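Internal tracking record. Fields below are filled automatically when a chain is submitted to the structure queue. Please do not edit lines marked as system-generated. If the sequence contains nonstandard residues, flag them in the REMARKS field before resubmitting.
Queue: standard
Priority: normal
Entity type: single polypeptide chain
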Amino acid sequence: MICFASICPHPPIIIPTIGGSELPKVKKTIEAMRKLAGVFAAAKPETVIIVSPHGPVQTDKMTITISENLSGNFGQFGDFETQMNFKNDPVLTKEIKKSAQIAGIPVDLIDLPQLDHGALVPLCFLTKNYPQVKLTPIAFSFLDYQTHFKFGQILSKLLATSDKRFAIIASGDLSHRVTPDAPAGFSPRGKEFDEKLVELLKTGNVQGILNLDKDLIEEAGECGLRSIIILLGVLDGCQLSNANCQLLSYEAPFGVGYLVAKYSL
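SYSTEM-GENERATED OUTPUT FOLLOWS
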């Protein structure tokens, strides 16, 4: 069963050992992630499935990491002390691949023990006081959005047949072009995209998300939409309401939209 579902941003700057003097600028996001961590611990998941834009993304297939031991750190961001380690759920990874391929969705299993920051940042908060979970990392593809939604539906049906408790996390930042000082350059459509997506999530309008204007998406320079669509497919496949989205925070202090949201299951 699925006991926890959320959308999480992944800026390393929200990690206290990295953010330093910039932490007050991301106060809303940090407080929301700490609140979400309490919900996560209370849900008591046994395995976490996390979809990250910064994993081993392939153009024409979903990618699932099958390495038995998973680990990562924030050395590239100046934190050489924090180290995170997890055990994978190898049986689950193989079952996901089998179910997806039966449905005609290509999936590749790879051995890549090193976790990317798209997974590490949310997990640093969520598993801090609940570290005993297994982890199954998934990287989305560049196949169409409907395929990602279908992949989520397939994933949910598989999880529903198990007595184990699963958490599903969609890791991703929204537009990278919200303000003039944004890292990807400014576009007035960056803010438009974020506001539109947040409203569609709050109202549970899945079709509105699947049919978002392609030019708007391109102009926004986002990295989390496909992660979110997989999550929405998971909720749909479990016949759970996509309207049960609770927005915990949104801010864009550095020109990148950071959204924290949870679903009532």
